[in-house]
Amino acid sequence: xxxxxxxxxxxxxxxxxxxxxxxxxxxxxxxxxxxxxxxxxxxxxxxxxxxxxxxxxxxxxxxxxxxxxxxxxxxxxxxxxxxxxxxxxxxxxxxxxxxxxxxxxxxxxxxxxxxxxxxxxxxxxxxxxxxxxxxxxxxxxxxxxxxxxxxxxxxxxxxxxxxxxxxxxxxxxxxxxxxxxxxxxxxxxxxxxxxxxxxxxxxxxxxxxxxxxxxxxxxxxxxxxxxxxxxxxxxxxxxxxxxxxxxxxxxxxxxxxxxxxxxxxxxxxxxxxxxxxxxxxxxxxxxxxxxxxxxxxxxxxxxxxxxxxxxxxxxxxxxxxxxxxxxxxxx
Length: 331
Description:
It is a single chain. By secondary structure, this protein is mainly β. The chain has helices spanning 2-18, 62-66; strands at 41-45, 48-52, 68-72, 85-87, 97-98, 101-105, 111-115, 118-119, 129-133, 138-140, 152-153, 157-159, 164-168, 171-172, 177-178, 182-186, 191-194, 208-211, 216-220, 234-239, 244-249, 251-252, 262-265, 271-275, 291-295, 300-302, 318-322, 325-329. Strands 22-26-25-24-23 form a 5-stranded mixed sheet, with no helix packed on it. Strands 1-2-3-4 form a 4-stranded antiparallel sheet. A hairpin with a 4-residue loop joins strand 16 and strand 17. The longest helix is centred in the N-terminal third of the chain and has 17 residues, at 2-18. Residues 1-21 form the signal peptide.
C-alpha cells in the first residue's frame, strides 16, 4: 500500500506540473492558469483541492498571492489528462500573503480555515483568521472569543477529529521573533485556547507536521532563528488528549537537516511520508534524498523504493493525501 502511495505521488507530481494543454474543449488561452508559487496554502475539502496565497516569481510576487482556485479531485487521476483549475479569485477577500497555513474545519467540516501569514503589500492585515464557506462560496472574518494572540507565520496548522486546530511555533510578525508555544483554535465555536509548552521543541518555522491515528501530532525538522536547518534524528510528539509533549529518537537512514519540508500520513497509517526541504545554508537537497518514510511504531527512517522519474527537490510547498494519492502541490 505504501509503495503504491509513493508511486502515485511521483506520477501525480509530474501531472500537476503539466498545467493545461486543452481542457474540455477550452482553449489554453482562455483556461485559467495559476501562477507557480511557494509559501502558499492548500487544503482538500469535499473532493476539491483549494489553493491560495503564496509568492510567485513576478515583480513583488503579488500576482499569485491574489489568486484563489481549486481543482476537482473527485474523479480518478490519469497522468495523461490535463487539469482544469476553477478560478475563485473574484470571491477572494484575503490580501496577498506568504507563510499562511490552512485546514478544513467548522461544524460540518466544510469550512476552509486560513490562519496567519505576512502580507505582501505595505498594508498589513490585522485579521488572524479568514474562513471560507465552501457551500455558500463566501469568505468572512470570524469573531473569535478567548485571549487574542499576536499574528504569526511560517507554521503548520494541524486539525484533530473534533475540529480543533493546533498551531505550534512560527514567527511573530510584530516582534520578528521565533516562538515555541502551542495555541489552539476551536473552529466550531471559534474560540482561542492554549496548549502546553512544557518540554516543547525549540522555536522553529517551516517544519513538517501531521496528525497520527492515535490523535498525536508529530513534528519534524524546521528552521531556527539563525537560519539553520534542524536535524531529523529526533521528532516531537504532541498528545492532543493529554496536552503534553514527548521526544522520540529516530534510527535508520536518518535524513539530513532540513526545513521547508512536508509530512503526511501514509495510507497504511503506519508511515509518515516526508518530502522536500532545504538543507543548511539553503542548500537544495538532491532528488534522490528528497523522499523518506518514518515508521511511527519504531521511529525508523527509510528511503522508499519508487517508480517513475523523481522530480527535482521542492521546498516551501504543500502536500495533501487525496484518495490513493499523496499529492504534493509544488511550485
